[in-house]
């Protein structure tokens, strides 16, 4: 096996956290190599060390047989190593095409040079993402921004690409296309290091897989020799299943809704949506990415204007909606894009979690620091945030642990309506079960939950009712306990799935 990248005894410590503990590992030329492990296992740290973003404390990195010295992102790029980080890193004011060629080509007076559009079209041929090259990146959805990052890595003609959770906001279709791109890269001899929590994707698309735990390599094996269960066991150190807890009892018939949307229109993304959520009820929105699920949540939460129709909250028509007003009324939303919308990365965990709730911890205007700490601490514990450290900046947490902190922030307020947009994206199998359990407990305590998830098992398993969303409208409702993933998929795509061929219509 010819090695593209080899790391030997690589160690990296952050404060008291040993993020990498003598990691030795080799990535072959022209292989797609999966990297899996629990939140905080060290996957991103390893990727960043290879990509030149982090300096290891000790150990060696070899790229195509040459030991690297004074490694940084620029040198890494010159050596053909490109990192697509978990935290997307684009310039919002520049266009798609400009971001794709950023740092590669000169721009004259802000104008992209004409040869580049041709080059852009070639890349588009390979990717088929269909992004508008002239749109400012800041106006794109997270999923589209992820595609820009992928195109940029291709534009750099990388020989080694580290992709850190590149599919976390892509549709199944788009993820499929990315997997094709990976195969195409492999056929050209490029090495792809693929970090993901989607174990099925690893098994289907990688040649080999490395499992990490607590900063160490547990093992590297051909994917053919692994199963989902064997990977989970290696990740956690014990066998485990993602357990869907039992759904809470539905609210009694006739219970008035906590929130209701009546024929709501907003821009072009939400078209005549009517739905209601009762206290203690979990209502799912299932749809493909881009179907309008997130936009429905945004209007309900007051992020986007209501152009026509009405929103009612606790029986009263909502006017003058804004996220701030919604929070004051008793709503909470865990947004899809945790970095941009949810957390203040350079502030301590404690502050991030308790910020919106300080009123609740003050008595006669005096803030009870002790009550605040105790409440936050309990949640951090229950969610399994690691390290369970209240005073460090949120920025230092691994991606999945940031997601858990965001969750804690909104749970603390015991809202009347909780809107969850992809609540388990990027969290590991253990945390998933914990988050499911919490959602059920919140509903049991009387909170109405609106749940958006691309993982249909999750929507079906937790919700009482599931609305099907397509083209900004609700095209149907199914009682979740009778639904199957295949049913939902078929109705969402509106095409017969393979499972249905030969079946009754
Ligand atoms: N810049 C940093 N400062 C301090 N600690 C850090 C920093 N980066 C990572 N860590 C810590 O190092 C450990 C490994 O983090 P890393 O981001 O590599 O995990 P990961 O495997 O990518 O997890 P996830 O699946 O959640 O993305 C974590 O405990 C994390 O809190
Ligand atoms: Mg990570």
From TrEMBL:
Q: Which residues form the ABC transporter domain?
A: 5-239, 253-496
The record's annotation in PROSITE patterns points to: ABC_TRANSPORTER_1 (PS00211), ABC_TRANSPORTER_2 (PS50893)
Q: Does the keyword ATP-binding apply?
A: yes
Name the InterPro entries on file. Answer: AAA+_ATPase, ABC_carbohydrate_import_ATPase, ABC_transporter-like_ATP-bd, ABC_transporter-like_CS, P-loop_NTPase
Q: Name one GO molecular function term.
A: ATP binding
Q: Keyword annotations for this protein? A: ATP-binding, Nucleotide-binding, Repeat, Transport
| CDD domains per the UniProt record, alphabetical | ABC_Carb_Monos_I, ABC_Carb_Monos_II
Classification via Pfam families: ABC_tran (PF00005)
The name on file for this protein is: Sugar ABC transporter ATP-binding protein
Q: Which organism is it from?
A: Nonomuraea marmarensis
